[in-house]
Amino acid sequence: MTIRAIRRAGAASVAALLAAGAVHAQSQSDRGVSYTLYGTPGLIEMPSALSARDGTIAATVGSFDGQTRNNFTFQVLPNLTGTFRLTRIEDFGGEGDGNYADRSFDLRYRFNDEGRYMPAFAVGLQDFLGTGIYSAEYLVGTKTFGDSLRVSAGLGWGRLGSYNGFSSPFGLDRERIDFGLGGEVETDQLFRGDVAFFGGVEYAPTDTVTLKAEYSSDAYEEETERGLIEHDSPLNFGATWRPVPNFQFGAAYLYGSEFALTGSVIINPKDRPFGPGLDSAPVPVSVRAADARAAQSWDRAALPEAKIGTELQKALRAEGVDLDSIELSDRRVRLRYTNNRYRAEAQAMGRIARMLSVGLPPSIETFVLEPMREGMPLSAVTLSRSDIETYETVAGGTSAIAQKLDLSEAGPREGLVELPRTDDRFGWGIRPYLRLTFFGGRDPARVNAGLEFSASYEFSENFSLSGALRQELYANRGEPEILEQEGDGPFPVRRNASRYAYEGTTGIERLTLDHYGRPAEAVYSRVTVGYLEQMYGGVSGELLWKPVDRDYGFGVEVNYARQRDFDQGFGFRDYDIVTGHGSLYYDFSDRFHGQVDVGRYLAGDWGATVALDREFENGWSVGGYFTLTDLPFDEFGEGSFDKGIRVTVPIDYVLGQPTRRDVSTSIASLTRDGGARLNVDGRLYDKVRDGHLEDLSDGMGRFWR
User: Fold this and answer.
1) CB-side exposure of 505: number of CA atoms within 13 Å?
2) CA–CA gap between residue 119 and residue 530 (Å, rounded)
3) H or E stretch at 651
4) Alpha-carbon distance 214 to 231, whole Å?
5) Parallel, antiparallel, or unpaired for β 332-339 and 366-373?
6) 68 and 132 in one domain?
7) Biggest alpha carbon distance in the chain?
8) What is the pLDDT of residue 216?
9) 670 is in which domain, residue-wise?
10) pLDDT tens digit sequence for 79-99
């Protein structure tokens, strides 16, 4: 089955549906697109209908008079913007020291691009998950005049309908903002209550400076009632400066009484700092003479099979590929190997095919490549040697190879001759680590930093021992209290995380035995035993069904977990539980990956986790997730569920040199007990899909690199 012949079945992707409103790329460039105190593209505090360039990530900090907003904004699609926000408000009446920590999430959808006469229009939901302290909805339009002037105007509800508002045109009332526990989407409040006008202008005298003035419809009712700020005027004035494309700084005078500062770091994963990369040049294809192509066999006395395998293993080792086993016949070769260097499996295949054209007897016409991960064969890609010789240097050679190759399930082990290992079974490393916690206590930010020592030993390709030990070198925290179970509430399965950091200054981060397998065609397995993560040890087992030519898969995981001692040594506490999930994986178009997990979590609660991640061709990944369980909202509020975002940055994006290593981080709204899942390294789906249809298709552009 060729890649060209395989077609996705089923409903259209979510990504395509959301992008339907944007037929063309947005007419304006990144010039003049600046970020508000809320971290969204817009004016000073008021939103606009602008969108940043597709894929743009902006981390923005905005601060004025005791309010600090840490914002993460991602341009999910050309017309869909998402913002995750952590806010600290001094003396607002929170726990302990009276400071208030708030988490909020925004979505904005832009309906259309600007036209010659038509403004761009957008609808937005502000803080629709959480306590609702910033809760608002709005409709806004933006029009650009010439190259320097932009005007925005809109209607706001909720917080954005609190100054000079008038009765809703829909005739619906809205309750006063509820500063309760949060944790629910108040759909019955959306676009209800008073509505007010807002708007403003932006003027860009240069490519790096933008001047702004706005009329705000936010009365800051709660803050003025509590004496935190003075609201003397609805007019705000400010300016932003973007000295280089990746940084923005701003200053503003707000409400006739407050000065504000903002700073943004802006990255677009599509922009490679090293262009296509600094990869070394591949070995040129060796083209056979016409009479050599016609040969039906080769002289094994002159060129033994064992020598072919040994020489290929040595050559591929220099390319970062470990050749595990080989099967040779007069007209065909089958290889099973592990690519340790190239992020795109297709690039490794292209390099291997070139090597085979040089090192194999001329009679061998068919190359069958079976990539492995953790000893599991992922697929079989069959290539014609004649096609490799024909299309290496011709225009359209990449698409031609993609059309002609055949993709199928990996073959059986029988027939393959295992080669002696030439790599070191033992590996180790030292790296720094940094853990940041915002607004988790009296300090605005807590820092843990130190060194992580890691080591691994491979008993075989699919059976290994690995672990990591952390030594803390710096921390700015006090001693946290130990939280206990309250009544019928959930056991504190995650809320004592700060205690682990406090006592585990020298601790075992993880120490596990891992076994991977392929018990049947399209079926993969994992068993992990040991100290699975910082807080839990036990046993984790997983099965995944994922055919190579399908964009979906199903998995099941069952775990027995026991909570570890706070010092992260070898001991355990008196809490254990059996957890498990059934999982559905789906690869949408345009590199969107969806996942739904349904099952039992660490606190014994039952529920589901929904996640959506967008991957970029160079290895960047940005995604979000949320979990809802049967813990009641009215008792636990935001603590009854989990939500957050996660980002993966590939190391080769920074260095320019090919490597499969990356750095991942997550930003969660709260560390609570509801919806808490066991953290297990090496789950199957991310291991397996590298060699399957969607990922191979996405990476074919690097086949000849």
Assistant:
1) 8
2) 59
3) helix 651-655
4) 15
5) parallel
6) yes
7) 95
8) 97
9) 426-694
10) 999 999 888 888 776 554 567
Mean pLDDT, residues 369-377: 96
- Measured between its terminal Cα atoms, the distance across the chain in Å is 24
Beta strands in 43-193 (DSSP E): 57-64, 67-77, 80-89, 100-110, 120-126, 136-145, 149-158
Mark which of 232, 267, 302 sits at the end of a domain. 267
Q: Does residue 704 lie within any of the structural domains?
A: no
Closest CA to 429 of 463, 469, 400, 402: 469
* pLDDT tens sequence across 661-695: 988 888 776 667 888 999 999 999 999 998 998 88
* Token representation of residue 501: 């950091």
Do 400 and 462 have their domain in common?
no
Q: Are residues 116 and 263 in the same domain?
A: yes
Amino acid found at 657: Q
pLDDT in tens, 11-49: 333 333 333 333 333 334 445 689 999 999 999 999 999
Cβ atoms of 438 and 445 within 8 Å: the answer is yes
The residue with tokens 């309750």 is 175
Q: How far is CA 159 from CA 16, 90, 91, in A?
A: 32, 19, 20
Supply the Cα-derived Rg of the chain in whole angstroms: 28
Report how many domains make up the chain. 3
Domain closes at, from 267, 301, 336? 267
Higher local confidence (pLDDT), 699 or 581? 581
DSSP E strand boundaries for 305-356:
321-328, 332-339
Residues facing residue 286 across a β-bridge? none
In this prediction, residues 563-568 reach a mean pLDDT of 96
